[in-house]
Amino acid sequence: MNGGDDASSSAATSGPPPSLEWRFSQVFGERTAGEEVQEVDIISAIEFDKSGDHLATGDRGGRVVLFERTDTKDHGGSRKDLEETDYPVRHPEFRYKTEFQSHEPEFDYLKSLEIEEKINKIRWCQPANGALFLLSTNDKTIKYWKVQEKKIKKISEMNIDPSREGSSSIPPQLVTNGLPADKDHGYLSNEYSFPPGGIPSLRLPVVTSQETNLVARCRRVYAHAHDYHINSISNSSDGETFISADDLRVNLWNLEISNQSFNIVDVKPTNMEDLTEVITSAEFHPIHCNMLAYSSSKGSIRLIDMRQSALCDSHTKLFEEPEAPGSRSFFTEIIASISDIKFSKDGRYILSRDYMTLKLWDINMDSGPVASYQVHEHLRPRLCDLYENDSIFDKFECCLSGDGLRVATGSYSNLFRVFGASQGSTEAATLEASKNPMRRQIQTPARPSRSIGSMTRVVRRGSESPGTEANGNAYDFTTKLLHMAWHPTENSIACAAANSLYMCSSNIVMLCPRPKADQSYRDESTEEATVIFQELEDSDNWVVDELGFTDLFNQLLPTMPWNSLMNRMMKELHDHGKTIEEIKQVLRRIPIHPRVIPAIKSAHALGCELRIVSDANTLFIETIIEHLGIREFFSEINTNPGFVDEQGRLIVSPYHDFTKSSHGCSRCPPNMCKGLIIERIQASLTKEGKKTKMIYLGDGAGDYCPSLGLKAEDYMMPRKSFPVWDLISQNPMLVKATVRDWTDGEDMERILMEIINKIISLEEEDEKDKMLSSDNCKISVGIVHEPMVPLTLQVPLNLVK
């Protein structure tokens, strides 16, 4: 339970962050004025996947709709954009991907009960081999879906009647047997005759796969395990199991086994007349697969540890707020019922939502919530009316930002609230699910409709008058924002207003803390694959060319080693009045392939360790990765030292100081042998007892040396038509590793994913056994570049299914 000891924990930041200014981003399914909303179209569930690249919604008609993010494809920005701004803030943009019918209405004949098709919850599972996986549930049945692109097979060439061939430029319409379509083919036609000597050539049908189509297939159905309505499903961090909860029980499932589950929580009394509370929500801990929390209708949250017993009838910790003396009324228990709970990303905090408030709990402190946020306190005088129209039973969801600095929940009139969760923060905004989320409506008591203004509205908690919005308008209790989700890595919120899905984004970039891995479950002998990744641009040549010193560079190139040449060029730049700031400005506008930054961020989000190995220098690399906002993702940089002396000149020193002693490799330049660096990395991993596979990507001649040291189970990915590819092509037998060449960024990404997925699939069974015994297995991904930015990534295998 020490997951929150990280200095970057949500409630332990140094000073409150600035308040967010929200703006409309996108809307899907927007209805026109006066348009009637069909009941089956109302959204009932929203969920982002862990990467934030996909969004799923479910509706009351049993449909699941998937959206995919599109702005990451050009996240690197154009050359002009990079020149004009320092890595501009980009709001997530999504597009419709596909939809499918998840559930149909059913009837339980034994209980004479209709089972609605409404989707109660959606949870994303681990993706694998380019396919998406997710769980969806209605009141009784959970389904495990696989969504994947399938190639459509078509017959592109058919047998042709030789007597008609060549008689017309337009071929006759054919069917699958190759005969003309305008004839009856129920029997062999007497009109058809074979030419003398037979048909000179027989063309067989050719099946081709040119188009792709997204197909959703139900892999598992988990049914007949709940007597009451399912209110929650939640995935375990082990990637193997999930829980489902109804009013009285919590069941544990294995994704691969649909015909049995284990009952781990049961609050059903022997005599139902003694029932005093029910389960309202349940959630797995995001890091510890043995821990989960569930909330009750009495306003309490119980944290349980499945290691204590098979049936967790006793809790590890109980979180509840003592009732104020003299405050009890008929509505006390109703408004205290918790409708939703969420763990923070690091697992240290639990956010809960009851009818009146949001509460933030520290799992290390069960004496009371660390923060409470008033959401509906202004409605307390109207509880009788809310009870009469059943609004008091509305179940609002809550969510936390990925960095844990803010919390959000919905309200009436399609409004939602965002509060600052960091210490000392007074941020509290009331926003509307509309194209102008921060607009202030003009007071028009005679009519409830709202007119659009341009003024920003920020409502502090508890500032509303009873029964009205901040602008004085009466609340519309028929339009309620029950479902919302916060993007895991961006300050962007998706919220459902009836059948419309609104996306609102802020002007401030989120810096998400990396959750600590559970070291207590890690086996030091876990198997890893080290991937050496390569950028596509050369920073050294870029600086020389952009500053106009190409001719001098080419003149000196044959006379000295690369590292010494770059040091000389920095002297020339300084002598001609070029400052360090001018060099940095050039580096900040270097064109980076659009697939690089999303790949780095995705790897980091999956818990990867990134390293850099480069023949450039520290100033060049630090400037580029800091400008792109990815410096914090890297744990190690291996490159030539570069520092600015007192005269303001950049001094570039060799990684291996050849003036004192040689590194001993005749294949590599005197300043750096990448083969020795990779050997050191391999040796350190072996010393830790980790078996490794290596995937090495490179393009320069300096990448040839490490390629010769790869083993048979490793992979070498040279860039086609570049020096290292030419050297390998001269004698491929010298490289023991499997060689897969690539041409550009997209090609490289595709091949790299193929190799990683192959490694995962080959070791999947072993990894399952290890994970079931609580052993974590990791893939280590490395990044290297000849004169530019290289990286090293470590991807846990149990995170990639």
UniProtKB/TrEMBL annotation:
GO cellular component: protein phosphatase type 2A complex
Single GO MF descriptor: phosphatase activity
Keywords: Hydrolase, Magnesium, Metal-binding, Repeat, WD repeat
Residue ranges, annotated region (Disordered): 1-22, 435-456
Annotated Polar residues bias: 441-454
Essential cofactor(s): Mg(2+)
Pfam name, any one: WD40
Compositionally biased region (Low complexity): 1-14
InterPro entries assigned: HAD-like_sf, HAD_hydro_PyrdxlP_Pase-like, HAD_sf, Pase_PHOSPHO-typ, PP2A_PR55, PP2A_PR55_CS, WD40/YVTN_repeat-like_dom_sf, WD40_repeat_dom_sf
Protein family per UniProt: Belongs to the phosphatase 2A regulatory subunit B family.
Role description: The B regulatory subunit may modulate substrate selectivity and catalytic activity, and may also direct the localization of the catalytic enzyme to a particular subcellular compartment.
Quaternary organization: PP2A consists of a common heteromeric enzyme, composed of a catalytic subunit (subunits C), a constant regulatory subunit (subunit A), and a variety of regulatory subunits such as subunits B (the R2/B/PR55/B55, R3/B''/PR72/PR130/PR59 and R5/B'/B56 families). Interacts with SIC/RON3.
Protein name: Serine/threonine-protein phosphatase 2A 55 kDa regulatory subunit B
